[in-house]
Specification:
There is one protein chain. With 661 residues, the protein is of the alpha/beta class. The protein is 38% helix and 17% strand. The chain contains 19 helices and 22 strands. The strands form 5 sheets. Strands 15-14-13-12-11-10-17 form a 7-stranded mixed sheet, covered by helices on one side. The chain has a 6-stranded mixed sheet with strand order 5-4-3-2-1-16. The chain has a 5-stranded parallel sheet with strand order 20-19-18-21-22, sandwiched between helices. A hairpin with a 2-residue loop joins strand 6 and strand 7. Helix 6 packs across helix 7, helix 9 packs across helix 10 and helix 15 crosses helix 17. The radius of gyration is 31 Å and the shape is elongated.
Length: 661
């Protein structure tokens, strides 16, 4: 499966205790619904064919046999449904009763997986009825021939916990199961399942509701999917269970590597659907070199060789529709509360990093070039916060504005307001004459607006900042961001250089959000208005003259493309190693209605060309704090040769465009 997604669902149906045929009908109806919605892995709750709270009725032969008969009927119902279904029931073997989940596909019983950790406390008395299952699979007779002499599932099936269902035509799809209590114990079966290769864990459960338990349960599933680097499908019993002493809420979740992709409301039935990203899971496991060692052998971790691997095949995978939302701005949390906490944390990391550097070099002064643009505004805010933490007077921050050929009144005035309202020292140095003299020295015609024309201004500004910092015993604060560094949209030894780069790990889309957050929290009306105007100003280096109306003529995003697209490309290429085809598919979903396919391909091509060709600037980049999982620092982040070629990635785009014709 090229794009790496598998559509899954956690299901809870209405049940009646011990009314096996009623339960079977509802399960079959839900299977039909899931099939229409193109679900590929469907998980029903623990003991759903009988109900979980049957008590001593589990010891009744009639209930055991009717559940087995219903299972066979359900198996037949799944013929040509092309999905893996997990359904729970009691199963008798060798005179003992087991709490099991049956793994079914296309009219065949693939395996019977027993629960291994049987609770026997307070409201749960499973130990009264059920025997813990063994790890090592053994082949057992199903006995289904009594229902139909030519039954497909007449052959022996494996019974045990250490079983992997391995899909032959979907990369990285290996499914294993554990049941309810199994995930609550210190050494959960899913730990060894994941080490043995399982990328998706199914958990049919029956977890009762008490105050606060739903939140704890959610945190447990998030954490388990994170430590396993896996997808996790969890579903719990709901309506119809006995309320004599306890209540069940039908809690359903789909998690992936620490994130809840989809979650049901309590006390509801139905499907909880999402798409698990197998490509992302595979990348994370490759990238996490501690992963294979994460479970000690002394706890019985097992290896892939110890597991029974059962192959199966899906007849088709519909890759056109996703039931999970692709975040168009992956560097920015989607939840409002998470955003605010995240922004506070990021600003704290930046400011405390700068505070430490100032203390280490015994420096009480900072020099920063303030342009009135987004990046220098954020750098100034961070510097002011660091000075506050270090209890250094704000006037020890020297803001230098250096107008030149492209400076507009709007950005100039905002730079002045920002410095003044923060209480920093402000100095204005017009660089026009010095740059013109430099043009004369190097024999450059100022009418030729080429790279020398633009970069001379950037380098002149950097020289001024460095020399003044030396003169006053200060440190130059870098303003460049991660997006500019990824694209190489910075002047080598110009704005590329500083003495400490507080924004070096902050992408442009996040810079904007951080400045916006600062404006929202700012009690100073004049400062807040200036910050809001900075946010409304087009992104520009202002190295070319303004237009006839005195407005910015050189707009960065007209030249290199929208930063929100580039940040999307940066994140998904570097964080997860996704291919051009995969990134294009995701971008079309994330930016549906904003950018068409042709536009996305155009700027994706620009991104790959610039990213590979500009590595030499990143190889000698200035020190700055690591803030995000994506980091371009040659020391603690990206290891990449400056001579690497982009040909493979560009060829992949060529093939996409050729197929589109």
């Amino acid at each position: 499966m090229d794009l790496g997604y598998i559509k899954v669902a956690a299901a809870t149906t209405e049940i009646r205790l011990a009314d096996v045929m009623f339960n079977l009908e509802n399960i079959n109806n839900t299977i039909d619904e899931a099939y229409r919605k193109k679900i590929k892995i469907l998980v029903f709750p623990e003991l759903c064919l009988t109900g979980y709270t049957c008590g001593d009725l589990f010891l009744q032969k009639e209930l055991i046999e009717r559940a087995k008969e219903a299972l066979y009927s359900l198996i037949k119902h799944t013929e040509s449904k092309d999905m893996v279904v997990f359904v729970g029931l009691p199963w008798e073997k060798d005179g003992k009763l087991y709490n099991v989940t049956a793994a079914i596909k296309d009219g065949e019983l693939l395996a019977i997986i027993p629960k291994t950790n049987i609770p026997n406390y307070q409201e749960f008395y499973e130990g009264r009825y059920f025997t813990p299952g063994s790890r090592k699979p053994e082949w057992i007779e199903t006995g289904f021939e009594k229902y139909e002499s030519k039954a497909k599932s007449f052959a022996k099936v494996p019974f045990g916990t250490d079983i992997l269902l391995s899909c032959k035509n979907v990369d990285n799809l290996n499914i294993a199961a554990e049941i309810c209590e199994d995930v609550w114990v210190p050494h959960a079966p899913s730990n060894r399942h994941a080490v043995a290769g399982a990328t998706v864990i199914a958990n049919p459960s029956a977890s009762d509701e008490i105050a606060g338990k739903a939140g704890f349960r959610k945190a447990l599933i998030e954490a388990q999917s994170s430590r396993l680097v896996a997808g996790y499908i969890y579903t719990s019993a709901g309506s119809g269970e006995s309320t004599s002493d306890i209540v069940f809420g039908g809690h359903r979740m789909v998690a992936e590597n620490g994130s809840i992709l989809a979650e049901s409301k309590l006390y509801t039935e139905g499907l909880c659907i999402s798409d698990i990203d197998l490509t992302k899971i595979s990348y994370e496991r490759r990238n996490k070199n501690t992963f294979p060692k994460s479970v000690s052998i002394e706890y019985g971790a097992g290896t892939e060789a110890d597991y029974l691997k059962l192959p199966f095949t899906f007849s088709e995978i519909d890759r056109s529709l996703l039931d999970r939302k692709i975040n168009a701005h992956p560097f920015i949390p989607e939840n409002t509360r998470d955003r605010q906490e995240s922004f506070k944390e990021i600003l704290n990391i930046q400011a405390h990093a700068l505070k430490k550097r100032l203390e280490h070099i015994n420096c009480k002064r900072a020099v920063i070039g303030v342009s009135g643009g987004l990046d220098s505004t954020l750098a100034l805010l961070v510097t002011a916060y660091a000075f506050k933490l270090a209890e250094i007077p704000m006037q020890n921050i020297l803001c230098i504005t250096m107008p030149a050929f492209g400076t507009t009144d709007r950005t100039y005035n905002n730079a002045l307001i920002l410095a003044n309202e923060l209480g920093a020292e402000l100095r204005e140095i017009n660089i026009k004459e010095s740059v013109l003299k430099h043009f004369e020295d190097i024999g450059h015609d100022p009418e030729i607006k080429n790279a020398a024309y633009e970069n001379s201004q950037a380098r002149e500004r950097t020289q001024i900042l460095m020399d003044i910092a030396n003169d006053i015993g200060g440190i130059v604060i870098g303003t460049g961001d991660l997006s500019e560094l990824a694209l190489g949209w910075c002047t080598y030894n110009g704005d590329h250089m500083s003495m400490y780069a507080v924004n070096s790990d902050i992408p442009k889309t996040l810079v904007r959000e951080l400045v916006s957050f600062a404006a929202e929290c700012c009690p100073n009306i004049r400062l807040r208005e200036a910050l809001e105007d900075v946010l409304d100003t087009p992104v520009s280096p202002e190295l070319l003259p303004a237009d006839s109306e005195g407005k910015i003529a050189q707009k960065t995003e007209d030249l290199v493309g929208p930063y929100e697209l580039h940040d999307f490309f940066i994140y998904n290429m570097l964080r997860y190693g996704f291919s051009p085809k995969r990134i294009l598919f995701m971008a079309e979903s994330a930016f549906d209605g904003t950018y068409d396919r042709e536009t996305i391909i155009k700027w994706l091509r620009v991104f790959y060309r610039r990213f590979f060709s500009q590595q030499f600037k990143r190889s000698c980049s200035v020190e700055g704090p690591k803030v995000l999982a994506v980091d371009l620092s040659p020391r603690g982040g990206l290891r990449m040769p400056s001579d690497a070629m982009a040909n493979l990635w560009l060829k992949a785009l060529d093939e996409i465009e050729e197929n589109d014709k």
